[in-house]
Amino acid sequence: MRGPIAPPQVPLAASRAETFADLVQDSVERLERRWPQLADIDFLVLDVPRLDGAAGPAWDETVPLGGTMTARDGRPARVVIYRRPVEIRSKGRDERAALVHEIVVEQVADLLGLTPETVDPRYGED
Predict the structure, then answer these.
(1) In this structure, are residues 80 and 44 in contact, taking their beta carbons and an 8 Å threshold?
(2) Helices in the chain by DSSP H: which ranges?
(3) Pairing between strand 78-82 and 66-69?
(4) 118 Cβ partners below 8 Å, 6+ apart?
(5) Which residues contact residue 8 at a Cβ distance below 8 angstroms, ignoring those fewer than 6 apart?
(6) Positive or negative, the Cα torsion across 69, 71, 72, 75?
(7) Cross-sheet strand order for the sheet of 66-69
(8) Are the C-beta atoms of residues 97 and 26 closer than 8 Å to each other?
């Protein structure tokens, strides 16, 4: 028998990248209830951070889990979450979902110039 193991509408058929993007989207939707201005921000998922040319990585000691880009030249502000570093640092789906939400909160706080606790009062709770 050849073909997919499960039909496309079943969660088993979703790729790891799609499942991760869903975690980011869930986190964003949770925050948008409190912060409607987040609708004007693009949230992106990239596999890994980029290297900036031959000079090496644009970060110091650790690989970033996320980043922000301010709005400019008619482009909206962006929050980027890096899938592979997050997956490496989390063991299961629940731990990954919590880490993704924490990263999204931190990046939104950075972009808005607020503390993570202001963005999400439950930030840092286990």
Answers:
(1) yes
(2) 16-32, 83-89, 93-112, 116-119
(3) antiparallel
(4) 109
(5) none
(6) positive
(7) 42-46, 78-82, 66-69
(8) yes
Q: Angle between the 16-32 and 93-112 helix axes, to the nearest 10 degrees?
A: 50
> Across residues 73-98, what is the average pLDDT?
94
CA dist 102 and 66 (Å) reads 10
What token pair was written down for 106?
């931190």
Question: HSE (CB half, 13 Å, CA atoms) of 83?
Answer: 15
Query: What are the phi and psi torsion angles at 112 (to 5°)?
Result: -90, -5
What's the rounded Cα separation, in Å, for the pair 59 and 83?
17
Q: Measured between alpha carbons, how far is 92 from 94 in angstroms, rounded to an integer?
A: 6
Token code pair at residue 116: 């993570």
The model's pLDDT over 33-85, given as tens digits with 9 standing for 90+, comes to 999 999 999 999 999 988 665 444 555 668 899 999 998 999 999 999 999 99
Tokens of 84: 């592979």
Residue 122 — pLDDT band, cuts 50, 70, 90? very high
